[in-house]
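Supplementary Note 2. Why include the ligand at all?

Several targets in our set were suspected to adopt different conformations when bound, so apo predictions alone were not considered sufficient. For every target with a known small-molecule partner we therefore ran a joint prediction. The input for calcium ion is given below.
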Amino acid sequence: MKLTPAVAATTFTALVSCLTMSVPASGSPASTRTAGSPYDLYLDFNGVQSGRPDISSSGSAPVSTSIASSGGGTVFATSRGSGQAARMEPFDPGTPAELAVVVARPEGTGDPLAPRSGDFAFGAYFNLDARSEGSSVDNGNNLVQRGLYRDDAQYKLQVDAGRVSCRVSGAAGALEVRASTAVKTGVWYSVRCVRNSSVVQLVLVELADSGSVRQSWSRSGPTGDLRFSARPPLSAGGKVSSRGAVVKESADQFNGRVDNVFFRRLDG
Ligand SMILES: [Ca+2]
Ligand SMILES: [Ca+2]
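The joint prediction is reproduced in C-alpha cell form.
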C-alpha cells in the first residue's frame, strides 16, 4: 500500500498511482508523458534498477529527466512505503564535493514548467539528514527549484538552517515565505508552495505515524509573470545552471531523501 499523501487530494493521488509507469532509470534520459495527469511534472521515483530510482515523470508535460552530477555524486534508490524515494548525496565537506541533482527539461517548443501569470503549486516530500550544511559548496538544501536568484523568474523550495522556505519571483516582484519553526531531521515531511493570485503560501505537513501535523505561512504582494527566458530545467535536490549543470561552487545539495516532486499549473 502506497503511503497516502496527506496534502494531495485523494482523487489526484489515485489518478497518479494508476498512471505511474515503471521505466528503467539507467541508460538514456527518461522521458514520459501521461495524458490526464493533474500534474505537469510528477516524480515519484518508484521503480529501481541497479540501485537507481526511476526518475521519469508521470506528469502531463513532455519533459526529459536526467541526473546532473559532479565529483562522482549519484542518486540512489531507497525504499519508501511500497515504492522508492531518491536518496540524495550525504553532506560532503570536501572540495570538490560529491554532488548529484535530478533535472527535468521541457521538451518541444512550449514551456509547461513556466506558470507565466497563472496560479501554480510545486512541492515534494523530504526527509533531511542530521548534517546537511556548513561548507562553501553546500550551505543549504535546495529541494525543488527552477531558475536562479537573479534570473528573470524563479520558484524555489529549500530547507536552510533547518527552516523551510519558498521563493516566487516574477516580472512584478519577489516573495519569500519562511517557516517559523524548524524541521526535525530524519522525519518525513510533505511541503508545497502555492501562488494564488497575490498570495504565496507555504504548507508544511509532518508525516508522523501518529498522524499528520500541518502548518502554513503566507505572504502577499505582486510577483507577476514567470517567463523563464533562459528556459532552464527544473531541478530537485540542488542548484543547476540554465544549461542543467550542477552549480558545483555553490550547489546547496539536498542531503537526505526526496519523493513525490511536483509542479502543477492551477489555472484552466
Ligand atoms: Ca516514491
Ligand atoms: Ca546540503
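The longest strand covers residues 199-208. Confidence is low (pLDDT under 50) at residues 1-28. Comparable summaries for the other entries are listed in the accompanying table.
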